[in-house]
Amino acid sequence: MNKIFLNKTIPGKTMFRKTVFAGTALFAALVAIPQARAEAPAPKGGISAPGAVQAGRYTVEPYHTQVEFTLMHMGFTAFSGFFSQASGTLVLDPAHIEATKLDVTLPIASVQTTAAKLDSELKSADWFDAAKYPSARFVSTHVTRTGSSTATITGDLTLHGVTRPVTLKARLIGSGVNPLDKKETVGFEGSTVISRSAFGVSRYVPLVGDQVTLHIAGAFEKAS
Predict the structure, then answer these.
(1) Which residues form the signal peptide (predicted)?
(2) Among 25, 53, 70, 211, which one is least packed by beta carbons within 10 Å?
């Protein structure tokens, strides 16, 4: 049917054929994109095999460590922000994961959202009160292996002058020598949910959500 139609002599036949051929070429190009992406070589860097992780003492690599927080904003949107500039240590032995020790501190003044005005408000006494409570700190108390590359990390979170137990779900992302700075590096992701009012940060609850989801990207470099 298409061949018969295309062979008919009609005004603008040449333009019609060009349009069909162009559309066909565009479709073929779009179909080829996923295959091209799939065949692209993987970037060289860390490996995720848990057995490749070197035991030892690590320090936080602050440029690629961040804590994202997400909460509901008046029931309309799930709003997010970040804390960064972390410092701290990780003592890790993959063969004895239960002996892991994690101690990380975040400066409250590092809080960042999409609005500078909101950033200032969050640092104020109405919210985190960065002047009085300049940092948040997590210190592990117990680690339990849950899979070949996963674990739960229970510890004490101190925020806004209040200390409460928190359990993180953690997963190994990769380990190995960083190809740029040549340092032995290990990276994890973690997540948990906390109640901000339990830490005394209760401004606008419940209009602004009390339950806060934390998603952590943690990078650590082996101490020399």
Answers:
(1) 1-38
(2) 25
What does DSSP assign to residue 34? Answer: H
Half-sphere exposure of 175 (CA within 13 A, CB side): 18
pTM: 0.78
Q: Could you tell me if residue 45 is inside a domain?
A: no
Q: Do 102 and 65 reside in the same domain of the chain?
A: yes
pLDDT in tens, 120-162: 999 999 999 999 999 999 999 999 999 999 999 999 999 999 9
Residues 68 and 173 in one domain: yes
At a CB cut-off of 8 Å and minimum separation 6, what does 62 contact?
A: 84, 85, 86, 87
How far is it, in rounded angstroms, from Cα 92 to Cα 89?
10
Q: Are 32 and 109 found together in one domain?
A: no
How do residues 94-126 score in pLDDT, each as one tens digit?
A: 999 999 999 999 999 999 999 999 999 999 999
Cα within 13 Å of Cα(158), Cβ side? 13
CB-based burial label for 12 (10 Å; 0-12, 13-18, 19+): exposed
- Domain assignment present for 44: no
The answer to whether the CB of 51 falls within 8 A of the CB of 94 is yes
Angle at 147 between CA 177 and CA 152, to 5 degrees: 85
Q: Which amino acid is at 42?
A: A
Sequence-distant (≥ 6) Cβ neighbours of residue 196 within 8 angstroms? 71, 202, 205, 210, 212
Strand (E) positions, 35-134?
A: 56-60, 66-73, 77-83, 87-92, 101-107
